[in-house]
């Protein structure tokens, strides 16, 4: 491939590439005073990154973010337990077992429902059904009146056309 001064004999118009550095002793160059003056001082302090913790899975982090969350969790746990007990009381009543009336009223207020006797419930259903039947009868009567009025008009028009 030739030398830096003479061309190659195997390749046409080829010279060896010229070195970019005149002095290739890198360690001596880096340690020289001129280079060392232009460098910034070495950072010796170690900075450790802090791992972000998820407050939804880590209760201590959640407590730091929202101090009231502990009371909220406790309150929700208590209300959940009360509602579970209230549902058990209502289930016992539905199964026909004897239930304390105080426990029954407490369960009803806890769950926000109205407890009625079966006779009251049947009476209420019958009243609703009667109202619905009355409404349907009114609608049917109004439709019959409309069709009758239409048929009278049609008969009057036919008489007028014949005359």
Short structural description:
The chain starts with 25 loop residues before the first helix and ends with a helix. The chain has helices at 26-30, 33-38, 59-65, 69-94, 101-111, 118-162.
What is the first-to-last residue Cα distance?
A: 126 Å
Largest sheet at a glance?
A: none
Mean pLDDT: 90
Unreliable residue stretches: none
Classify the secondary structure makeup into a structural class.
mainly alpha
Rg, nearest Å: 48 Å
Estimated share of beta-strand residues: under 5%
What's the β-strand tally? 0
Helix run count:
6
- The shape is elongated
Q: What is the string of helix and strand elements?
A: HHHHHH
- Helix percent reads 55-70%
Structure description:
The protein is mostly helical and 163 residues long. 61% of the residues lie in helices and 0% in strands. It has six helices and no strands. Helix 4 (69-94) packs across helix 5. The model has no long low-confidence stretch (mean pLDDT 90).
Topology:
Layout: H1 26-30, H2 33-38, H3 59-65, H4 69-94, H5 101-111, H6 118-162
Helix pairs in contact: 4-5
Keywords:
163 residues; mainly alpha; 6 helices; 61% helix
């Amino acid at each position: 491939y030739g030398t830096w001064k003479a061309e190659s004999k195997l390749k046409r118009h080829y010279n060896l590439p010229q070195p970019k550095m005149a002095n290739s002793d890198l360690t001596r160059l880096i340690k020289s005073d001129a280079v060392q003056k232009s460098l910034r001082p070495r950072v010796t302090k170690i900075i450790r990154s802090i791992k972000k913790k998820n407050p939804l899975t880590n209760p201590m982090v959640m407590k730091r973010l929202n101090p009231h969350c502990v009371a909220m969790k406790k309150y929700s746990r208590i209300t959940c337990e009360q509602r579970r007990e209230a549902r058990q009381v209502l289930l016992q009543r539905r199964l026909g077992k004897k239930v304390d009336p105080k426990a029954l009223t407490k369960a009803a207020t806890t769950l926000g429902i109205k407890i009625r006797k079966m006779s009251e419930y049947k009476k209420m259903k019958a009243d609703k059904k009667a109202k619905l039947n009355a409404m349907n009868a009114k609608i049917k009567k109004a439709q019959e009146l409309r069709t009758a009025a239409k048929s009278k008009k049609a008969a009057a028009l036919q008489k007028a056309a014949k005359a």
